[in-house]
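Margin note: ligand = protoporphyrin IX containing FE.
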Amino acid sequence: MSTPNERRLTQARQAALEAAERAGIDRAFISNLVETFYGHIRRDERLGPIFEQQIGDNWEPHLATMKTFWGSLVFHDGQYAGRPMPAHLRLKDAVPEDFQIWLGLFERTLDEIDAGEEAYRFFLERADRIGRSFQMHMFYAPGE
Ligand code: HEM
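Resulting structure:
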């Protein structure tokens, strides 16, 4: 027997899975998005060095973390257990304009991988919203 709460969670997860399927988003899609996007990031003259400095030789785990992160947002599978805020508060050289570059590369990647309209909107909206919340903490309410 499941509790009403468990049933609601299952229903919410089911709805998320159906929405993902309609939008053509599966694990392979997310993997391609993440790999292609961080390829651009690493080659970017401004963002590349910022990432390199933090990540160094640990790109494989970072890419795996990012696939899990996006998978959790898409499939509501609860697999991402990280805390992104502290990771970004450590970036002492980052400035608000860097988020414009980040989002521009993300949008370009969605174009390149031929994301359908719904997938495009889903990822871009989430990235924009999360990026804004990082910026609030990093630049406008530091120390929180
Ligand atoms: C200028 C923009 C950004 C820069 C320079 C940046 C940089 C970084 C770096 C260097 C790391 C690795 C931190 C570490 O391992 O110590 C990281 C992790 C991460 N970033 Fe960003 N990031 C940016 C924007 C974003 C945005 C917009 C999102 C969300 C859509 C995001 C989501 C994440 C997540 C989920 C992690 C993994 C945190 C963890 O669990 O370890 N980042 N970022």
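The CA atoms of residues 70 and 143 lie 27 Å apart.
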